[in-house]
Protein backbone atom coordinates (compact mmCIF):
# COMPACT_ATOMS: atom_id res chain seq x y z
CA UNK A 1 0.00 0.00 0.00
CA UNK A 2 1.35 3.37 -0.99
CA UNK A 3 2.18 5.86 1.76
CA UNK A 4 0.73 8.64 -0.35
CA UNK A 5 -1.87 10.67 1.57
CA UNK A 6 -4.56 12.51 -0.34
CA UNK A 7 -4.19 16.24 0.40
CA UNK A 8 -7.97 16.69 0.34
CA UNK A 9 -8.20 15.03 3.74
CA UNK A 10 -6.33 17.77 5.53
CA UNK A 11 -8.43 20.36 3.73
CA UNK A 12 -11.65 18.60 4.68
CA UNK A 13 -10.87 18.50 8.37
CA UNK A 14 -10.01 22.19 8.31
CA UNK A 15 -12.83 23.34 6.07
CA UNK A 16 -15.56 21.38 7.82
CA UNK A 17 -15.03 23.58 10.83
CA UNK A 18 -16.11 26.76 9.07
CA UNK A 19 -19.49 28.20 10.09
CA UNK A 20 -21.32 27.11 6.92
CA UNK A 21 -20.69 23.47 7.81
CA UNK A 22 -21.34 23.72 11.53
CA UNK A 23 -24.68 22.96 13.12
CA UNK A 24 -25.23 24.81 16.37
CA UNK A 25 -28.10 24.03 18.74
CA UNK A 26 -31.33 25.34 17.28
CA UNK A 27 -29.74 26.40 13.99
CA UNK A 28 -31.68 25.41 10.86
CA UNK A 29 -29.35 24.17 8.12
CA UNK A 30 -30.79 22.15 5.28
CA UNK A 31 -34.26 22.15 6.91
CA UNK A 32 -33.10 20.01 9.86
CA UNK A 33 -32.62 21.35 13.38
CA UNK A 34 -30.43 19.36 15.76
CA UNK A 35 -32.21 20.17 18.99
CA UNK A 36 -33.59 16.70 19.75
CA UNK A 37 -33.26 13.06 18.70
CA UNK A 38 -35.32 12.58 15.56
CA UNK A 39 -38.08 10.00 15.26
CA UNK A 40 -38.41 7.77 12.22
CA UNK A 41 -41.30 9.88 10.91
CA UNK A 42 -39.11 12.98 11.09
CA UNK A 43 -36.23 11.19 9.38
CA UNK A 44 -38.48 9.99 6.54
CA UNK A 45 -39.77 13.52 6.01
CA UNK A 46 -36.24 14.92 6.00
CA UNK A 47 -34.89 12.34 3.55
CA UNK A 48 -37.78 13.02 1.19
CA UNK A 49 -37.07 16.75 1.46
CA UNK A 50 -33.41 16.13 0.64
CA UNK A 51 -34.30 14.15 -2.48
CA UNK A 52 -36.86 16.76 -3.54
CA UNK A 53 -34.53 19.74 -3.03
CA UNK A 54 -31.28 18.08 -4.12
CA UNK A 55 -32.38 15.68 -6.83
CA UNK A 56 -29.15 16.35 -8.70
CA UNK A 57 -27.14 14.51 -6.06
CA UNK A 58 -29.57 12.48 -3.90
CA UNK A 59 -31.67 9.35 -4.42
CA UNK A 60 -33.69 7.38 -1.87
CA UNK A 61 -33.75 3.58 -1.85
CA UNK A 62 -36.30 1.42 -0.04
CA UNK A 63 -34.24 -1.71 0.57
CA UNK A 64 -36.83 -3.69 2.52
CA UNK A 65 -39.31 -3.65 5.37
CA UNK A 66 -38.64 -3.80 9.09
CA UNK A 67 -40.27 -6.34 11.42
CA UNK A 68 -43.18 -3.92 11.95
CA UNK A 69 -43.39 -3.03 8.26
CA UNK A 70 -41.54 0.29 8.25
CA UNK A 71 -39.57 1.15 5.12
CA UNK A 72 -35.84 0.54 5.43
CA UNK A 73 -34.41 3.66 3.79
CA UNK A 74 -30.96 4.32 2.36
CA UNK A 75 -30.00 7.71 0.95
CA UNK A 76 -27.54 7.61 -1.94
CA UNK A 77 -25.51 10.78 -2.48
CA UNK A 78 -23.53 11.25 -5.69
CA UNK A 79 -23.53 13.40 -8.80
CA UNK A 80 -24.86 11.11 -11.54
CA UNK A 81 -23.79 13.59 -14.21
CA UNK A 82 -20.23 12.49 -13.46
CA UNK A 83 -21.15 8.81 -13.49
CA UNK A 84 -23.60 6.31 -12.09
CA UNK A 85 -23.39 5.59 -8.39
CA UNK A 86 -22.32 1.98 -8.92
CA UNK A 87 -19.49 3.14 -11.19
CA UNK A 88 -17.79 5.07 -8.37
CA UNK A 89 -16.15 4.06 -5.10
CA UNK A 90 -18.83 3.83 -2.43
CA UNK A 91 -19.01 4.06 1.35
CA UNK A 92 -21.68 2.86 3.78
CA UNK A 93 -22.82 4.62 6.97
CA UNK A 94 -25.66 3.55 9.24
CA UNK A 95 -27.05 4.37 12.65
CA UNK A 96 -29.51 3.20 15.26
CA UNK A 97 -28.96 -0.51 14.76
CA UNK A 98 -29.42 -0.67 18.52
CA UNK A 99 -32.69 0.94 19.55
CA UNK A 100 -31.33 3.04 22.40
CA UNK A 101 -28.23 4.25 20.57
CA UNK A 102 -30.04 7.07 18.86
CA UNK A 103 -27.09 9.38 18.40
CA UNK A 104 -25.91 7.20 15.51
CA UNK A 105 -28.90 8.37 13.51
CA UNK A 106 -28.07 11.98 14.35
CA UNK A 107 -24.49 11.59 13.09
CA UNK A 108 -25.84 10.10 9.86
CA UNK A 109 -28.25 13.01 9.46
CA UNK A 110 -25.51 15.52 10.24
CA UNK A 111 -23.26 13.85 7.66
CA UNK A 112 -26.04 14.09 5.06
CA UNK A 113 -26.61 17.72 5.89
CA UNK A 114 -22.92 18.59 5.70
CA UNK A 115 -22.66 16.93 2.30
CA UNK A 116 -25.71 18.56 0.72
CA UNK A 117 -24.93 21.99 2.19
CA UNK A 118 -21.30 21.73 1.12
CA UNK A 119 -21.92 20.64 -2.46
CA UNK A 120 -21.05 23.47 -4.82
CA UNK A 121 -19.79 25.52 -1.87
CA UNK A 122 -16.82 23.63 -0.43
CA UNK A 123 -14.61 22.31 -3.27
CA UNK A 124 -13.46 19.24 -1.33
CA UNK A 125 -17.02 18.15 -0.57
CA UNK A 126 -18.04 18.84 -4.16
CA UNK A 127 -15.18 16.64 -5.32
CA UNK A 128 -16.25 13.81 -2.99
CA UNK A 129 -19.81 13.85 -4.33
CA UNK A 130 -18.59 14.08 -7.94
CA UNK A 131 -16.17 11.17 -7.59
CA UNK A 132 -17.66 8.91 -4.90
CA UNK A 133 -21.00 7.49 -3.82
CA UNK A 134 -22.10 7.71 -0.20
CA UNK A 135 -24.83 5.40 1.11
CA UNK A 136 -26.37 6.51 4.41
CA UNK A 137 -29.01 4.64 6.43
CA UNK A 138 -29.83 6.75 9.50
CA UNK A 139 -32.32 4.28 11.00
CA UNK A 140 -31.27 0.67 10.46
CA UNK A 141 -33.70 -0.33 13.20
CA UNK A 142 -36.65 2.09 12.90
CA UNK A 143 -38.98 -0.04 15.04
CA UNK A 144 -36.69 -0.17 18.05
CA UNK A 145 -35.58 3.42 17.68
CA UNK A 146 -39.12 4.78 17.74
CA UNK A 147 -40.03 2.53 20.68
CA UNK A 148 -37.10 3.96 22.60
CA UNK A 149 -37.83 7.57 21.69
CA UNK A 150 -41.58 7.53 22.26
CA UNK A 151 -42.09 5.23 25.27
CA UNK A 152 -40.83 5.27 28.85
CA UNK A 153 -39.06 1.92 28.76
CA UNK A 154 -35.68 1.29 27.21
CA UNK A 155 -34.77 -1.57 24.91
CA UNK A 156 -31.65 -2.74 23.14
CA UNK A 157 -32.53 -3.87 19.65
CA UNK A 158 -35.38 -5.53 17.75
CA UNK A 159 -39.01 -5.33 18.87
CA UNK A 160 -39.66 -8.90 17.72
CA UNK A 161 -41.08 -10.72 20.78
CA UNK A 162 -38.42 -12.83 22.47
CA UNK A 163 -38.21 -14.97 25.58
CA UNK A 164 -35.40 -13.30 27.52
CA UNK A 165 -35.85 -15.14 30.81
CA UNK A 166 -36.34 -18.66 29.44
CA UNK A 167 -39.79 -19.26 30.95
CA UNK A 168 -41.53 -20.00 27.66
CA UNK A 169 -43.33 -16.66 27.49
CA UNK A 170 -42.29 -13.65 25.42
CA UNK A 171 -42.20 -10.01 26.52
CA UNK A 172 -44.41 -10.80 29.51
CA UNK A 173 -42.61 -8.67 32.10
CA UNK A 174 -41.75 -5.21 30.75
CA UNK A 175 -41.10 -2.12 32.83
CA UNK A 176 -44.00 0.13 33.76
CA UNK A 177 -44.00 3.85 34.41
CA UNK A 178 -45.95 3.54 37.65
CA UNK A 179 -45.80 7.17 38.73
CA UNK A 180 -46.47 8.57 35.26
CA UNK A 181 -43.37 10.77 35.04
CA UNK A 182 -42.42 9.46 31.61
CA UNK A 183 -39.44 7.40 32.76
CA UNK A 184 -38.65 3.95 34.05
CA UNK A 185 -36.43 4.63 37.04
CA UNK A 186 -35.97 2.59 40.22
CA UNK A 187 -38.04 1.48 43.18
CA UNK A 188 -36.43 1.24 46.59
CA UNK A 189 -37.99 -0.69 49.46
CA UNK A 190 -36.97 -0.34 53.09
CA UNK A 191 -35.12 -3.52 54.05
CA UNK A 192 -32.69 -3.95 56.97
CA UNK A 193 -31.11 -6.83 55.06
CA UNK A 194 -30.93 -4.90 51.79
CA UNK A 195 -27.77 -4.64 49.76
CA UNK A 196 -27.95 -0.88 49.27
CA UNK A 197 -27.70 2.08 51.60
CA UNK A 198 -28.00 5.82 51.19
CA UNK A 199 -24.74 7.58 50.41
CA UNK A 200 -23.46 9.46 53.45
CA UNK A 201 -22.54 12.55 51.43
CA UNK A 202 -25.63 12.64 49.23
CA UNK A 203 -28.58 10.55 50.46
CA UNK A 204 -30.22 10.75 47.05
CA UNK A 205 -27.60 8.29 45.83
CA UNK A 206 -27.57 4.61 46.69
CA UNK A 207 -24.32 2.72 47.20
CA UNK A 208 -23.62 -0.94 47.82
CA UNK A 209 -22.99 -2.03 51.38
CA UNK A 210 -19.45 -2.52 52.49
CA UNK A 211 -18.48 -5.68 54.38
CA UNK A 212 -20.18 -5.82 57.75
CA UNK A 213 -22.56 -2.95 57.07
CA UNK A 214 -26.31 -3.25 57.31
CA UNK A 215 -28.34 -2.10 54.38
CA UNK A 216 -31.26 0.27 54.12
CA UNK A 217 -32.82 -0.61 50.81
CA UNK A 218 -33.57 -3.32 48.30
CA UNK A 219 -33.76 -1.86 44.81
CA UNK A 220 -35.90 -2.93 41.84
CA UNK A 221 -36.50 -1.58 38.38
CA UNK A 222 -39.73 0.42 38.23
CA UNK A 223 -42.60 -1.85 37.32
CA UNK A 224 -44.70 -4.84 38.33
CA UNK A 225 -43.72 -8.50 38.58
CA UNK A 226 -46.15 -9.48 35.84
CA UNK A 227 -45.21 -13.16 35.74
CA UNK A 228 -44.87 -13.59 39.53
CA UNK A 229 -41.38 -15.02 39.36
CA UNK A 230 -39.93 -12.66 41.95
CA UNK A 231 -38.11 -10.58 39.36
CA UNK A 232 -39.03 -7.22 37.86
CA UNK A 233 -38.82 -6.19 34.21
CA UNK A 234 -36.59 -9.12 33.24
CA UNK A 235 -38.49 -9.85 30.01
CA UNK A 236 -39.42 -6.59 28.35
CA UNK A 237 -40.12 -5.77 24.73
CA UNK A 238 -37.93 -7.65 22.26
CA UNK A 239 -34.62 -9.21 23.17
CA UNK A 240 -33.12 -10.21 19.85
CA UNK A 241 -29.91 -8.32 19.12
CA UNK A 242 -29.62 -7.55 15.43
CA UNK A 243 -25.94 -6.83 15.95
CA UNK A 244 -25.44 -10.49 16.83
CA UNK A 245 -27.35 -11.73 13.77
CA UNK A 246 -24.65 -11.39 11.11
CA UNK A 247 -23.09 -14.46 9.46
CA UNK A 248 -19.49 -13.85 10.53
CA UNK A 249 -18.88 -16.11 13.56
CA UNK A 250 -22.58 -16.33 14.33
CA UNK A 251 -23.45 -18.54 17.30
CA UNK A 252 -26.63 -20.02 18.70
CA UNK A 253 -28.55 -18.44 21.56
CA UNK A 254 -26.94 -20.60 24.26
CA UNK A 255 -23.55 -19.09 23.36
CA UNK A 256 -24.58 -15.63 22.13
CA UNK A 257 -27.79 -14.26 23.63
CA UNK A 258 -30.08 -12.54 21.18
CA UNK A 259 -28.42 -13.97 18.07
CA UNK A 260 -31.66 -15.03 16.38
CA UNK A 261 -32.74 -18.35 14.91
CA UNK A 262 -30.08 -18.25 12.19
CA UNK A 263 -27.75 -15.69 10.53
CA UNK A 264 -29.65 -12.84 8.83
CA UNK A 265 -32.93 -14.15 10.21
CA UNK A 266 -34.09 -10.58 10.83
CA UNK A 267 -35.49 -8.48 7.98
CA UNK A 268 -33.26 -5.52 8.85
CA UNK A 269 -29.97 -7.44 8.71
CA UNK A 270 -30.96 -9.38 5.61
CA UNK A 271 -31.97 -6.22 3.73
CA UNK A 272 -28.68 -4.48 4.51
CA UNK A 273 -26.60 -7.53 3.58
CA UNK A 274 -28.43 -7.96 0.28
CA UNK A 275 -28.06 -4.27 -0.54
CA UNK A 276 -24.33 -4.35 0.15
CA UNK A 277 -23.82 -7.51 -1.89
CA UNK A 278 -25.67 -5.79 -4.74
CA UNK A 279 -23.40 -2.75 -4.32
CA UNK A 280 -19.90 -4.17 -4.38
CA UNK A 281 -18.47 -0.70 -4.95
CA UNK A 282 -18.61 -0.04 -1.19
CA UNK A 283 -15.09 0.38 0.22
CA UNK A 284 -15.86 0.75 3.92
CA UNK A 285 -18.56 0.43 6.57
CA UNK A 286 -19.27 2.60 9.61
CA UNK A 287 -21.89 1.27 12.02
CA UNK A 288 -22.52 4.06 14.56
CA UNK A 289 -23.13 3.02 18.17
CA UNK A 290 -23.20 4.68 21.60
CA UNK A 291 -21.38 3.33 24.60
CA UNK A 292 -18.03 4.26 26.00
CA UNK A 293 -16.33 6.81 23.75
CA UNK A 294 -13.96 4.61 21.77
CA UNK A 295 -13.58 3.20 18.27
CA UNK A 296 -14.30 -0.51 17.91
CA UNK A 297 -12.65 -2.32 14.99
CA UNK A 298 -12.06 -5.86 13.74
CA UNK A 299 -11.18 -8.48 14.66
CA UNK A 300 -14.35 -8.88 16.65
CA UNK A 301 -13.14 -12.25 17.89
CA UNK A 302 -9.97 -14.29 17.81
CA UNK A 303 -9.25 -15.92 14.44
CA UNK A 304 -8.12 -19.54 14.17
CA UNK A 305 -7.04 -21.66 11.23
CA UNK A 306 -9.74 -24.34 10.72
CA UNK A 307 -7.11 -26.98 9.90
CA UNK A 308 -4.19 -26.31 12.25
CA UNK A 309 -6.11 -24.55 14.99
CA UNK A 310 -3.42 -21.89 15.19
CA UNK A 311 -4.44 -18.31 15.83
CA UNK A 312 -4.35 -16.13 12.72
CA UNK A 313 -3.44 -12.46 12.98
CA UNK A 314 -4.85 -9.87 10.64
CA UNK A 315 -2.82 -9.48 7.43
CA UNK A 316 -0.21 -6.78 8.12
CA UNK A 317 -1.49 -4.61 5.26
CA UNK A 318 -4.97 -4.59 6.81
CA UNK A 319 -3.64 -4.02 10.30
CA UNK A 320 -1.79 -0.98 8.96
CA UNK A 321 -5.05 0.40 7.53
CA UNK A 322 -6.89 -0.08 10.81
CA UNK A 323 -4.09 1.55 12.74
CA UNK A 324 -3.74 4.54 10.42
CA UNK A 325 -7.46 5.28 10.20
CA UNK A 326 -7.79 4.64 13.91
CA UNK A 327 -5.10 7.21 14.67
CA UNK A 328 -7.08 9.75 12.65
CA UNK A 329 -10.16 8.98 14.76
CA UNK A 330 -8.13 9.43 17.93
CA UNK A 331 -6.82 12.73 16.60
CA UNK A 332 -10.24 14.11 15.69
CA UNK A 333 -12.44 12.67 18.46
CA UNK A 334 -10.72 13.98 21.59
CA UNK A 335 -7.98 11.34 21.76
CA UNK A 336 -10.39 8.43 22.20
CA UNK A 337 -8.90 4.92 22.06
CA UNK A 338 -9.24 2.25 19.38
CA UNK A 339 -10.14 -1.24 20.58
CA UNK A 340 -10.76 -4.83 19.50
CA UNK A 341 -11.89 -7.82 21.59
CA UNK A 342 -8.78 -9.85 20.84
CA UNK A 343 -7.49 -11.41 24.02
CA UNK A 344 -10.90 -12.16 25.46
CA UNK A 345 -12.29 -14.34 22.73
CA UNK A 346 -12.34 -17.68 24.54
CA UNK A 347 -14.06 -19.31 26.25
CA UNK A 348 -17.19 -17.87 24.63
CA UNK A 349 -19.07 -16.98 27.80
CA UNK A 350 -16.27 -14.70 29.01
CA UNK A 351 -16.85 -11.84 26.66
CA UNK A 352 -16.50 -12.95 23.04
CA UNK A 353 -18.73 -11.13 20.57
CA UNK A 354 -20.33 -13.23 17.85
CA UNK A 355 -22.27 -12.31 14.72
CA UNK A 356 -21.33 -8.62 14.71
CA UNK A 357 -21.91 -6.39 11.67
CA UNK A 358 -18.38 -5.02 11.43
CA UNK A 359 -16.94 -8.53 11.78
CA UNK A 360 -19.05 -9.55 8.79
CA UNK A 361 -18.15 -6.34 6.95
CA UNK A 362 -14.45 -7.13 7.17
CA UNK A 363 -14.28 -10.94 7.19
CA UNK A 364 -17.02 -11.67 4.64
CA UNK A 365 -17.56 -8.46 2.67
CA UNK A 366 -13.87 -7.59 2.72
CA UNK A 367 -13.72 -3.90 3.65
CA UNK A 368 -12.48 -1.95 6.70
CA UNK A 369 -15.41 -1.71 9.09
CA UNK A 370 -15.82 0.40 12.19
CA UNK A 371 -18.04 1.07 15.19
CA UNK A 372 -17.59 4.52 16.71
CA UNK A 373 -18.91 4.00 20.24
CA UNK A 374 -20.05 7.54 20.92
CA UNK A 375 -21.88 9.10 23.80
CA UNK A 376 -19.89 8.61 26.98
CA UNK A 377 -20.58 11.40 29.42
CA UNK A 378 -17.25 10.87 31.17
CA UNK A 379 -15.37 13.63 29.30
CA UNK A 380 -17.88 16.18 30.54
CA UNK A 381 -18.28 15.27 34.20
CA UNK A 382 -15.24 13.13 35.06
CA UNK A 383 -13.78 15.36 37.77
CA UNK A 384 -11.16 12.86 38.96
CA UNK A 385 -10.01 11.93 35.42
CA UNK A 386 -10.38 8.19 35.96
CA UNK A 387 -12.05 7.75 32.58
CA UNK A 388 -15.55 7.06 33.87
CA UNK A 389 -18.56 9.01 35.05
CA UNK A 390 -19.37 7.97 38.61
CA UNK A 391 -22.85 8.55 40.00
CA UNK A 392 -21.40 11.25 42.27
CA UNK A 393 -19.97 13.07 39.26
CA UNK A 394 -23.19 12.56 37.35
CA UNK A 395 -25.19 14.04 40.21
CA UNK A 396 -22.92 17.08 40.41
CA UNK A 397 -23.33 17.58 36.67
CA UNK A 398 -27.07 17.08 36.98
CA UNK A 399 -27.32 19.75 39.67
CA UNK A 400 -24.90 22.32 38.28
CA UNK A 401 -25.18 22.01 34.50
CA UNK A 402 -28.34 20.18 33.51
CA UNK A 403 -30.95 21.71 35.78
CA UNK A 404 -31.92 18.37 37.28
CA UNK A 405 -32.85 16.72 33.98
CA UNK A 406 -31.34 13.32 34.61
CA UNK A 407 -32.32 12.52 38.20
CA UNK A 408 -35.81 12.04 39.61
CA UNK A 409 -36.09 12.75 43.33
CA UNK A 410 -37.34 9.83 45.42
CA UNK A 411 -41.06 10.00 46.20
CA UNK A 412 -43.39 7.58 48.05
CA UNK A 413 -45.60 5.21 46.06
CA UNK A 414 -47.98 2.42 47.06
CA UNK A 415 -46.93 -0.60 45.03
CA UNK A 416 -49.55 -3.33 44.45
CA UNK A 417 -47.05 -6.08 45.26
CA UNK A 418 -44.26 -4.52 47.32
CA UNK A 419 -46.34 -2.16 49.41
CA UNK A 420 -44.75 1.15 50.33
CA UNK A 421 -41.85 2.02 48.04
CA UNK A 422 -40.05 5.11 46.83
CA UNK A 423 -39.64 5.73 43.11
CA UNK A 424 -36.81 7.82 41.69
CA UNK A 425 -33.17 7.75 40.65
CA UNK A 426 -31.34 8.39 37.42
CA UNK A 427 -33.59 8.24 34.39
CA UNK A 428 -33.36 5.07 32.35
CA UNK A 429 -32.34 6.91 29.19
CA UNK A 430 -29.02 7.78 30.87
CA UNK A 431 -28.23 4.68 32.90
CA UNK A 432 -26.98 1.68 30.91
CA UNK A 433 -28.36 -1.40 32.66
CA UNK A 434 -26.19 -3.70 30.52
CA UNK A 435 -22.87 -2.18 31.53
CA UNK A 436 -24.06 -0.94 34.95
CA UNK A 437 -22.60 2.46 34.18
CA UNK A 438 -23.73 6.04 33.67
CA UNK A 439 -22.14 6.39 30.27
CA UNK A 440 -24.78 5.39 27.76
CA UNK A 441 -26.70 8.20 26.14
CA UNK A 442 -25.73 11.64 24.94
CA UNK A 443 -29.31 12.87 24.77
CA UNK A 444 -28.99 16.55 25.59
CA UNK A 445 -28.76 19.01 22.70
CA UNK A 446 -26.32 21.86 22.96
CA UNK A 447 -22.59 22.25 22.62
CA UNK A 448 -21.81 18.69 23.76
CA UNK A 449 -24.31 17.16 21.36
CA UNK A 450 -23.14 19.23 18.42
CA UNK A 451 -19.46 18.72 19.15
CA UNK A 452 -19.98 14.97 18.79
CA UNK A 453 -22.00 15.36 15.61
CA UNK A 454 -19.48 17.60 13.95
CA UNK A 455 -16.35 15.64 14.83
CA UNK A 456 -17.81 12.32 13.76
CA UNK A 457 -18.92 13.89 10.48
CA UNK A 458 -15.31 14.99 9.91
CA UNK A 459 -14.07 11.47 10.44
CA UNK A 460 -16.79 10.02 8.19
CA UNK A 461 -15.75 12.25 5.29
CA UNK A 462 -12.10 11.47 5.93
CA UNK A 463 -12.92 7.78 5.40
CA UNK A 464 -14.86 8.42 2.19
CA UNK A 465 -11.86 10.22 0.70
CA UNK A 466 -9.51 7.28 1.39
CA UNK A 467 -11.10 5.01 -1.22
CA UNK A 468 -9.23 3.84 -4.30
CA UNK A 469 -9.96 6.10 -7.27
CA UNK A 470 -9.14 5.01 -10.80
CA UNK A 471 -7.94 7.67 -13.25
CA UNK A 472 -6.66 7.40 -16.82
CA UNK A 473 -3.43 9.34 -16.58
CA UNK A 474 -2.64 8.91 -20.27
CA UNK A 475 -3.96 7.10 -23.32
CA UNK A 476 -1.90 7.73 -26.44
CA UNK A 477 -1.31 6.32 -29.93
CA UNK A 478 2.11 6.27 -31.58
CA UNK A 479 2.29 5.68 -35.34
CA UNK A 480 4.68 2.94 -36.46
CA UNK A 481 3.97 3.44 -40.16
CA UNK A 482 1.97 1.43 -42.67
CA UNK A 483 -1.20 1.93 -40.62
CA UNK A 484 0.21 0.38 -37.42
CA UNK A 485 -0.11 2.11 -34.06
CA UNK A 486 1.12 1.37 -30.57
CA UNK A 487 -1.46 2.22 -27.92
CA UNK A 488 -0.18 3.05 -24.45
CA UNK A 489 -2.49 3.22 -21.46
CA UNK A 490 -1.46 4.54 -18.06
CA UNK A 491 -3.93 3.93 -15.26
CA UNK A 492 -3.41 5.64 -11.92
CA UNK A 493 -4.99 4.88 -8.56
CA UNK A 494 -5.36 8.39 -7.16
CA UNK A 495 -6.79 7.08 -3.92
CA UNK A 496 -5.06 5.93 -0.77
CA UNK A 497 -6.39 2.37 -0.52
CA UNK A 498 -5.46 -0.30 -3.08
CA UNK A 499 -8.12 -1.35 -5.54
CA UNK A 500 -8.64 -4.61 -3.63
CA UNK A 501 -9.08 -2.46 -0.47
CA UNK A 502 -8.01 -5.25 1.92
CA UNK A 503 -5.95 -8.42 1.87
CA UNK A 504 -8.95 -10.11 3.46
CA UNK A 505 -10.87 -9.51 0.21
CA UNK A 506 -8.10 -11.34 -1.66
CA UNK A 507 -8.28 -14.24 0.80
CA UNK A 508 -12.06 -14.34 0.30
CA UNK A 509 -11.61 -14.18 -3.47
CA UNK A 510 -14.19 -11.37 -3.56
CA UNK A 511 -11.87 -8.65 -4.88
CA UNK A 512 -12.20 -8.29 -8.64
CA UNK A 513 -9.11 -7.12 -10.50
CA UNK A 514 -9.02 -3.87 -12.45
CA UNK A 515 -9.87 -4.43 -16.10
CA UNK A 516 -9.27 -2.40 -19.26
CA UNK A 517 -11.53 -2.89 -22.28
CA UNK A 518 -10.93 -1.55 -25.79
CA UNK A 519 -13.67 -0.70 -28.27
CA UNK A 520 -12.28 -0.22 -31.79
CA UNK A 521 -13.73 1.41 -34.90
CA UNK A 522 -11.71 1.11 -38.11
CA UNK A 523 -8.94 -0.72 -36.25
CA UNK A 524 -8.02 -4.28 -35.42
CA UNK A 525 -5.79 -5.59 -32.64
CA UNK A 526 -2.61 -7.30 -33.80
CA UNK A 527 -0.99 -7.60 -30.36
CA UNK A 528 -2.90 -7.91 -27.11
CA UNK A 529 -6.52 -8.60 -26.25
CA UNK A 530 -9.54 -6.30 -26.23
CA UNK A 531 -10.04 -6.88 -22.50
CA UNK A 532 -7.15 -7.36 -20.10
CA UNK A 533 -6.74 -7.57 -16.35
CA UNK A 534 -4.50 -4.98 -14.75
CA UNK A 535 -4.43 -6.82 -11.44
CA UNK A 536 -4.75 -4.68 -8.33
CA UNK A 537 -3.25 -1.20 -8.16
CA UNK A 538 -1.93 0.14 -4.85
CA UNK A 539 -2.85 3.66 -3.81
CA UNK A 540 -0.77 6.22 -5.67
CA UNK A 541 0.62 3.71 -8.19
CA UNK A 542 0.41 3.70 -11.99
CA UNK A 543 -0.12 0.67 -14.22
CA UNK A 544 0.97 0.76 -17.88
CA UNK A 545 -0.33 -1.46 -20.68
CA UNK A 546 0.31 -1.53 -24.43
CA UNK A 547 -1.39 -2.85 -27.57
CA UNK A 548 -0.53 -2.89 -31.26
CA UNK A 549 -3.38 -2.10 -33.63
CA UNK A 550 -3.74 -1.83 -37.39
CA UNK A 551 -5.84 0.68 -39.29
CA UNK A 552 -8.70 -0.88 -41.28
CA UNK A 553 -10.98 2.11 -41.85
CA UNK A 554 -10.77 5.71 -43.02
CA UNK A 555 -11.53 7.41 -39.65
CA UNK A 556 -10.28 5.02 -37.00
CA UNK A 557 -10.95 5.54 -33.30
CA UNK A 558 -10.40 3.57 -30.13
CA UNK A 559 -12.06 3.91 -26.75
CA UNK A 560 -10.78 2.44 -23.51
CA UNK A 561 -12.87 1.82 -20.43
CA UNK A 562 -11.11 1.00 -17.18
CA UNK A 563 -13.30 -0.78 -14.64
CA UNK A 564 -12.54 -1.26 -10.96
CA UNK A 565 -15.10 -2.82 -8.63
CA UNK A 566 -13.97 -0.62 -5.74
CA UNK A 567 -12.09 2.16 -7.52
CA UNK A 568 -14.71 3.31 -10.02
CA UNK A 569 -14.55 3.54 -13.80
CA UNK A 570 -12.82 5.83 -16.26
CA UNK A 571 -12.93 6.08 -20.05
CA UNK A 572 -11.21 7.90 -22.88
CA UNK A 573 -11.47 7.97 -26.69
CA UNK A 574 -8.71 8.53 -29.23
CA UNK A 575 -9.27 9.54 -32.86
CA UNK A 576 -6.42 8.43 -35.10
CA UNK A 577 -5.33 9.95 -38.37
Topology:
Blueprint: H1 7-15, E1 28-29, E2 32-33, H2 40-53, E3 58-65, E4 71-77, E5 90-94, H3 103-118, H4 123-131, E6 133-137, H5 142-150, E7 186-190, E8 196-198, E9 206-208, E10 217-221, H6 267-278, E11 282-287, E12 294-296, H7 316-332, E13 338-339, H8 357-363, E14 369-373, H9 378-381, H10 391-400, E15 407-415, E16 419-426, H11 447-464, E17 470-481, E18 484-493, H12 503-508, E19 514-521, E20 523-527, E21 531-535, E22 542-551, E23 557-564, E24 568-575
Parallel strand pairs: 5-6, 5-11, 11-14, 12-13
Antiparallel strand pairs: 1-2, 3-4, 4-6, 7-10, 7-16, 8-9, 12-14, 15-16, 17-18, 18-22, 19-21, 19-23, 20-22, 23-24
List keywords for this structure.
577 residues, Aminopeptidase, Immunoglobulin-like, 12 helices, 24 strands, elongated
Taking all Cα atoms into account, the compactness measure Rg is 28 Å
Main sheet record: 8 strands, mixed
Derived structural class: alpha+beta
CATH class of the largest domain: Alpha Beta
- What is the CATH homology-level superfamily of the largest domain? Zn peptidases
Counted beta strands = 24
Oligomer: single chain
Proportion in β-strands? 15-25%
Taking all residues together, what is the mean pLDDT?
87
Shape: elongated
At the third CATH level, what is the topology name of the largest domain? Aminopeptidase
Brief rundown of the structure:
By secondary structure, the chain is an alpha+beta fold. The protein is built from twelve helices and 24 strands.
Amino acid sequence: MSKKVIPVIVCLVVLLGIPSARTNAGQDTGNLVFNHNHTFTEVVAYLNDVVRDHSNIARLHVIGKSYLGNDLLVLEITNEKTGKGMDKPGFWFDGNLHASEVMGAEVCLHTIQTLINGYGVIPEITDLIDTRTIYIMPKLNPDGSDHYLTRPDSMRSSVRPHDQDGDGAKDEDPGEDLNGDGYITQMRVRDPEGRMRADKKDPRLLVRNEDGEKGDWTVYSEGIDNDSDGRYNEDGVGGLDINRNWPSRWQQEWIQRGSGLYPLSEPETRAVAEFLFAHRNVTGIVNHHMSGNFLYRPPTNRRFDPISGEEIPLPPEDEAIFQQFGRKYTEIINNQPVRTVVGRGAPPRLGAIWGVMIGWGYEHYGVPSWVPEMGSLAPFCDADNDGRASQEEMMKWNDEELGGKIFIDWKPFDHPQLGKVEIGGFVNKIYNSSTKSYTNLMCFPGEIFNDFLEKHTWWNLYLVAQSPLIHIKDFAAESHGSGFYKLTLKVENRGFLPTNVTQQALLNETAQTVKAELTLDGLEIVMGKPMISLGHIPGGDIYTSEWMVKKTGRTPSVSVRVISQKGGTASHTLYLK
